[in-house]
Design brief:
The complex is a heterotrimer of chains A (about 280), B (about 575) and C (about 375). By secondary structure, chain A is an alpha/beta fold. Chain A is built from eleven helices and nine strands. Chain B contains 22 helices and 24 strands. With about 575 residues, chain B is of the alpha/beta class. In chain B, the strands form seven sheets. Chain B has a five-stranded parallel sheet with strand order 7-6-5-8-20, sandwiched between helices. Classes of the chains: A alpha/beta (about 280), B alpha/beta (about 575), C alpha/beta (about 375). The interface between A and C is large, with 46 and 42 residues. β1 of chain B pairs antiparallel with β9 of chain C, so a sheet runs across the interface.
């Protein structure tokens, strides 16, 4: 039931492909809530629970702990939450779960706005971007979420993208075998909300990675950084020009963004130095 | 106490769904559906022989070098030769060139020929025909024709006038570019296939053509162009002047040619270059190539021209000989005139125009003129074959047929472009023509069926078995359809030089080396494999509607669910997927 | 054999003996000793389950719901602000039909900020679909938590056990704690099938259409009605095995009463003294203790008060724009009677303000004198 070209659908499918049948999925009211279908049908072939908006993490945590009590620890607890349910309303409960290091995998499907309710901005919406609630361009800047994640010292956190499906699947595979709270931040392009043709989702994801705007890396125990893919370093304009939500960007805006991307990449590279590999 | 609560009880009291969304046939509304169909790579399109280059790279990428070699040998029996001397039009049109550097396709072909195993058994035809075909000439065109005809089941005999087979490959191209043992190896495979090669058999002199007409159901004339052309200037018949083709043939026959101290080579094609560098290796130290246009127009391969200069040979560009000067009856110099480039002439190249009053003298005592070659076709007149004023056999382009039924011609003697690959292609064309003739099939239709794009080349694989590697031979993959985001940049791996120029000029050892086996995989990786599905699974993994299914032989599409978003087609690294009509949409 | 325990600790003991498998909680006065005691038990290895220390009450309830669906016995406790924060999740639990038991330690809801017993927190959640029981003392709290699990797991609806903040939670009483075997005889282990079965997967709680939604709500309504007999049966069984029991209401001297006082929670203990004192003085006063709020014991109340001329209700809560909540519920239950008693509503003890026996006597006497009570409640405060 997804829009044609939906990035979330591709991502969820790859995640579940790796995790297999012994998985319990927690989803939220979101695009996934619609994609997963109404009663009496389900798009999932594994047990699934439609939880409330802000509680993806404690729901998955509750399931994980109950599974521990029942001795069913070969079953993986998995939560899919959007950027709204993660960066905004779900941040508190995710923080609590990470603090307890409850044993589940949290996959954030980041399409950079509240898409299901009609493209409203979230704290994941990048600066200057058009949404229905920021028609003049968002004033705030995209939250540096992985830094928040790093601060929680989760045993494993990573960024991933459908443009690099094997990297994504490898990271899910890795997360499955680690005990504790695992966070995977995936960029899931949305043709509807990003105002682009429906065949460009995967390419948009690839471009986000290749322009260094969305680097692919892992954070282990909150301290060790590893870049898992070396991007080509294409100019950000390549990524922006295919999306209508950036159409109003001036050359000055693009240059400013390019500078920011370059600086953040350097900071990330600096963080990887001195790490034991 | 109530009875235990069961899952059936629970199903009644809160939403509990076990149906599947597979009941929603979202694909029925879509007006577009993806189709996986391999296409033609631009390199294949450019190749006169129509080698299935992308597929060979694909097989090689999996380590199947033998299979990759077999793919080349579907169309080209001489990959070891082409891998060394071809003018590589494939690399000129290689899509990778637009991304960083063209793939070293020629080096790859050589690598396969030198390292892969040939399984002649796999090339032997399923059915033998009773017809016999005679081929006159064992140069590339003749060898190619014999190879393909044998694979089609015909009995083939080649009649070669010179002591050994190979034509220009042996008697034209020098050893340092194409070692004789490589040539012998490849000709050996052709013999293993069952082709009879009779050397020292001079048709037209020892063997009458009319006899051949009786003994063989079809004839293929592949005489080559072994006669030199005249310079058409004064003093041309002085001693110390010889034509390039004769010079090279003499050296390649193992004889010596005495050259003077200062040698001039007239011409800018590969023959001229070959003559110059052969002369260098024969001891001459002062050699000048004189060419009437600029470097860009030189027909010789750029890398060979560079090699020439590294070996200390001078090149005088935009100069043409006016007359030859003699002193005491001996050649002492050439009077040349400077040229300038004018409008393009019939060949498409700028016409060279003499600059009056710019004469200058080049002091020489030997001149090798390599300005052209002509076929030696006098003896054909006895049969009434039509030959043009340049001695070139007249053939109908697509059919390779001469004016006499049952006699076909190809290669240099039929006016094909003077490169090895074109000769080989011409031989292949001849084989198809003869096969159609003997079967009574319309060759034009047959050719169109297997034609690659809009080129004069066709696919022999397709002829033998179109289902084996199904592909759309007419659709060529443009650069803008390659998803370059899937490919990291990388530098091209050139063939290393075995010898320094200083060492090289002392002998006729092969100068260029092959790509090292440890480096080859990296060059193979650089190839985009345009239009050949490599089962990278990207479409399969990305489909948001799980509509691309992976089978043992490839991919299929679940049209019930495919919404036609076209992500697969757009993201495919190599343009394998096309969007066709779906069942939904406007009717 | 009785031991001295404060109410909170009695609840913690009940949780342990009920073999709760997962506790998720967040600290808030006056619930904290429950949370701390359970933590001690976990540390000593005497708590059978796992503890989740959540970062808010909302998350605590979320975790309990998820764990309960997965198939384990769960518990949480909160009060006041915490219960208010949980509001969304209370609906969520009831709608998901999970047998969670929660102890709410009644405390006033801000603003103004204060710390004292007040039933506004739990009473204002009465429409969320939970069963609600109000306990008079620590012993009843212990017994009710145990009974609550059995009821919840039979009807698949969550149960809230309310105790007065400070008055019950922190006062120490002599409590009889039965042994594990007796509790096990009454309360079997959790046996509700998991709703997340990877061998037979299902999607729980997905979106429904309006008619379907109405159907589920009606079913929940009917199941809530069925709890009445389940509650009674559970209590009888508890009485039989453990030796104690409680009705959904308790009537003291109501048969011939000219006025019946209605109270709930800890105030009932004070009321017992006040009513006895009035009786000693010759007044025909009776007491009706309300234990269950949901399901509301309509039939029982109608039966007890059908011939009573006057009723006084003391509410330790207020619903702005109407009055005390017990009073409203009671009046609605009495409405069908041929002879409706005159009902006077009193608001007293808000935020744990002192309500002494003589204040209660005074309220009853004034109510008896009143001819036509107003619908509006009368506010009673010691310093006024």
């Amino acid at each position: 039931m997804a829009c044609p070209g939906c990035g979330e659908a591709s991502t969820m499918r790859l995640v579940l492909k790796v995790l297999g049948e012994k998985t319990i999925v927690v989803i939220l009211p979101s695009c996934v809530g619609v994609i997963s279908a109404t009663f009496p049908n389900s798009t999932f072939k594994v047990p699934c629970f439609h939880s409330a908006f802000e509680i993806a993490a404690p729901t998955a945590a509750g399931i994980a702990n109950a599974l521990k009590v029942q001795g069913r620890e070969d079953v993986t607890a998995l939560a899919f939450a959007g950027d709204g349910g993660t960066f905004d309303i779900g941040l508190q409960s995710l923080s609590g779960a990470a603090d307890r290091n409850d044993n589940f995998i949290y996959v954030c499907l980041d399409n950079e706005a509240y898409m299901n309710t009609g493209i409203q901005s979230s704290s994941s919406t990048p600066q200057g971007v058009w949404t229905m609630t920021t028609p003049g361009g968002r004033r705030g800047r995209k939250k540096k979420f992985m830094q928040i994640i790093a601060a929680h010292r989760m045993p494993y956190a990573a960024t991933a993208s459908i443009g690099n499906p094997h990297d994504l699947m490898a990271k899910i595979r890795k997360a499955k075998d680690i005990k504790g709270t695992k966070f995977i931040h995936t960029l899931t392009p949305c043709p509807t909300g990003w105002r682009m043709p429906e065949d460009l989702s995967a390419k948009a994801a690839m471009l986000a990675v290749e322009t260094k705007l969305f680097p692919l890396y892992e954070i282990i125990d909150g301290t060790e950084y590893r870049i898992t893919y070396q991007p080509q370093g294409l100019p950000v304009s390549e990524y922006l020009k295919i999306q209508g939500r950036y159409r109003h960007f001036t050359d000055k805006d693009v240059a400013a963004l390019q500078q920011e991307v370059d600086e953040e990449w350097e900071q990330l590279v600096a963080k990887t130095k001195g790490c034991r590999l | 106490m109530n009875d235990r609560i069961t899952i059936e009880d629970i199903k009644q009291i809160a939403p509990f769904s076990q149906g599947s969304t597979e009941i929603f046939l979202t694909g029925l509304w879509s007006s577009r559906k993806p189709v996986h169909i391999d296409k033609t790579s631009p390199c294949r399109h450019a190749c006169p022989i129509g080698n299935d280059i992308a597929r060979a790279f694909y097989e090689a990428s999996m380590g199947h070098y033998d299979e990759a070699l077999r793919i080349f040998r579907q169309d080209n029996p001489l990959p070891g030769v082409c891998g060394r001397v071809c003018y590589h039009p494939c690399e000129v049109l290689c899509n990778r060139k637009e991304y960083d550097e063209a793939v070293n396709i020629r080096g790859f072909e050589r690598f396969l020929a030198d390292n892969g195993k040939v399984d002649i058994g796999r090339e032997k035809p399923a059915h033998l025909r009773k017809e016999r075909v005679a081929i006159i000439g064992s140069g590339p065109a003749g060898l190619s024709a014999s190879y393909h005809l044998t694979r089609l089941g015909f009995s083939v005999t080649i009649f070669e006038a010179l002591p050994e087979p190979g034509g220009m490959l042996r008697y034209g191209i020098p050893e340092y570019r194409l070692p004789k043992d490589i040539l012998d190896r490849e000709i050996g495979y052709i013999r293993d296939l069952g082709v009879e090669i009779r050397t020292g058999a001079r048709v037209g002199k020892d063997l009458p053509l009319t006899d051949m007409r009786n003994d063989y159901q079809a004839l293929f004339l592949a005489l080559g162009a072994h006669g030199g052309t005249e310079l058409g200037i004064k003093g041309e018949h002085l001693p110390g002047i010889m034509d390039g083709v004769t010079y090279l043939r003499t050296i390649n026959l193992g004889k010596k040619v005495r050259l003077g101290k200062k040698v001039a080579v007239i011409g800018g094609g590969n023959t001229a270059i070959d003559c110059a560098r052969t002369a260098r290796r024969s001891g001459a130290k002062d050699i000048t190539i004189i060419y009437r246009r600029s470097r860009t127009e030189m027909p010789a391969l750029a890398e060979d021209v560079e090699g020439t200069e590294k070996e200390g040979i001078k090149i005088e560009l935009l100069a043409a000989p006016r007359r030859l000067i003699s002193e005491n009856g001996k050649l002492s110099g050439i009077e040349c005139v400077r040229m300038r480039l004018g409008e393009p002439d019939a060949s498409g190249r700028p016409r060279p125009i003499p600059v009056e009053g710019s004469e200058f003298l080049v002091s020489v005592d030997s001149v090798i003129s390599a300005t052209g070659q002509a076929p030696q076709t006098e003896f054909l007149k006895e049969l009434g074959l039509l030959v043009d004023k340049n001695s070139v056999i007249e053939i109908s382009c697509e059919t390779a047929a001469t004016n006499i039924e049952g006699i076909f011609a190809g290669g240099d003697s039929a006016g094909t472009r003077a490169f090895v690959a074109d000769a080989i292609a011409s031989g292949k064309q001849g084989a198809l023509a003869i096969s159609c003739y003997l079967d009574g099939i319309d060759i034009k239709k047959a050719f169109k069926n297997h034609q690659i794009g809009d080129q004069p080349s066709f696919s022999f694989q397709h002829l033998l078995d179109p289902e084996h590697y199904p592909a759309d031979l007419k659709k060529v993959v443009p650069y803008n359809k390659i998803n370059t985001l899937c490919f990291p940049h990388g530098a091209r791996h050139d063939n290393p030089d075995n010898l320094t120029p200083k060492e090289a000029v002392k002998n006729f050892k092969e100068v260029a080396g092959g790509i090292d086996p440890s480096q080859m995989p990296f060059e193979i990786y650089r190839c985009f494999k345009c239009g050949t599905c490599t089962h990278c699974d990207l479409c399969f993994l990305l489909c948001p509607d799980i509509s691309i299914m992976k089978g043992k032989d490839g991919y299929s599409v679940r049209t019930d669910f495919c919404k036609g978003c076209s992500q697969c087609a757009t993201t495919c690294p190599r343009n394998v997927i096309e969007m066709g009509e779906g069942s939904g949409g406007r009717k | 054999m009785k031991i001295l325990l404060k109410g909170n600790y009695a609840v913690a003991e009940a949780v342990r003996l009920a073999r709760v498998q997962l506790v998720a909680a967040y600290p808030i006065t006056p619930q904290t000793p429950i949370y701390e005691k359970l933590s001690d038990m976990e540390n000593e290895g005497t708590l059978p389950g796992v503890m989740m220390r959540t970062e808010s009450e909302h998350s605590a309830m979320a975790a309990c719901i998820a764990a309960s669906l997965t198939g384990v016995r769960t518990f949480t406790a909160t009060a006041s602000q915490g219960l208010a924060l949980m509001h969304e999740m209370l609906h969520f639990a009831s709608g998901n039909r999970v047998p969670i038991v929660m102890c709410n330690v009644n405390r006033v809801v801000a603003v103004p900020w204060a710390f004292g017993s007040d039933q506004s927190d739990s009473l204002s959640q009465r429409d969320t679909g939970w069963l609600q029981f109000y306990c008079e003392d620590a012993q009843e709290a212990f017994d009710t938590v145990i009974q609550a699990y059995r009821v919840a797991e039979q009807v698949l609806l969550p149960v809230m056990v309310a105790i007065d903040g400070f008055f019950t939670s922190h006062f120490i009483e002599p409590i009889e704690i039965p042994d594990q075997a007796s509790i096990d005889a009454f309360l079997p282990s959790f046996s509700i099938p998991t709703r997340f079965n990877e061998a037979d997967p299902a999607y729980i709680a997905n979106v429904v259409n309006p008619e379907q939604y109405m159907g589920y709500r009606q079913r929940s309504f009917e199941d809530m009605e069925k709890t009445r007999s389940v509650i009674q049966e559970a209590n009888e069984e508890y009485q039989r095995i453990i030796g104690r029991g409680y009705g959904v209401v308790e009537a003291v001297n109501t048969d011939d009463a000219e006025i019946v006082l209605v109270t709930s929670g800890a105030m009932t203990s004070t009321a017992r003294v006040a009513i006895q004192s009035l009786r000693d003085r010759g007044l025909k006063a009776g007491l009706l203790k309300m234990k269950a709020l949901r399901p509301f014991p309509t039939r029982e109340v109608q039966e007890i008060l059908k011939n009573t001329p006057k009723v006084a209700v003391i509410d330790r809560n207020i619903s702005l724009g109407k009055g005390g909540i017990w009073c409203q519920e009671l009046k609605a239950a009495l409405y069908p009677l041929d002879r409706r008693p005159e009902v006077t509503g009193y608001i007293a003890g808000i935020c744990g303000a002192d309500v002494s026996p003589d204040m209660i006597e005074d309220m009853v006497m004034k109510a008896l004198e009143r001819e036509q009570p107003d619908d509006l409640p009368i506010w009673v405060r010691r310093d006024q």
